[in-house]
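Blinded run. Sample ID left blank on purpose so nobody reads anything into the name before looking at the predicted structure. Input follows.
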Amino acid sequence: MTSRAESAGTDAGRTGDFQHRGAFFSSAEELRGRVLPRLRAALDSGDRAILAVAPRTRAALLAGLPAADAAAVERVDRRDLYDAPGRTLAALHRRARAEHPRPVLVVGEPPMPVEDPMRLREWHRLDSVLTHALAGTRMRLLCLHDERVLPERVRSDVRRTHPVLLARGDEYGSPDYVDPAAFSAPDAARPLPAPAGEQRSLRIGPDLASLRTAVGELAEKAEVPRERLGDLVLAANELAANVVEHGGGTGTLTLWRSPGWVVCDVADRGGGLLDPLCGYRPTEPVSPRGYGLWITRQVCDFMEISGGANGTLVRAHFRV
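Blinded prediction complete.
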């Protein structure tokens, strides 16, 4: 990616239908049986075909294609596409817009970090919202999951976040699929863990210019790397602006470090932001508002939202 944030507008209009499918595999034979017929069909139709999978998966798939077909498949580094949930959505949105009206098939292998509940939950949340967030595009997204390395609890959430599944060459509606709002609803009222380590806080008020300066000073004291400073200040500004406009006008920003991360909490007492999916729905290009959380999702690595009628807490994580 050349930029951490993009506009939420789209030129694609509302023609065509986004398709989101999940596929489990436990062998190279199963993998090729699930994927190769769809890759060949896309290439035969003149559609764009993209692979963003692990090296071993890519090698297994390309080995099953004729040389000319394998050369026609675009290869994208999996780590680039699946950099962070907000940036992944923006990259898919950007590609769908760039290819329109040409259909594009993306075969991806999303990360499932089973060792980190927060990161795992946020990747599942992205999968859940994709069908709504990319509605109207002509993208077909096929998400691959190696069931040899995934525990049942993870496979269960894959079934809940993909409306269509593939098995033995057939596709069927997932009986466990749930609407994105229902999937994320339990998290809205889930208290987030208390900050760990030394905390630095400041009050949020209507003077956002002063707040940006103060966040920069806090970040310097917290030894935030320079390459993440701009992302942190931008995210803090957008979240604070939301507090001023929708969260009762005042709030608190708290910054702290954990191994490998800088974390920024923005809390208000107005309870105006209760949807864990905020920032995952691209704003229409004619709308003058609603870009802040879309941008924030892209400049931070993970963003959690928790709260209720008495207040909202947004937690932005920055990898350092």
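Unblinding after everyone has recorded impressions. Confidence is low (pLDDT under 50) at residues 7-16.
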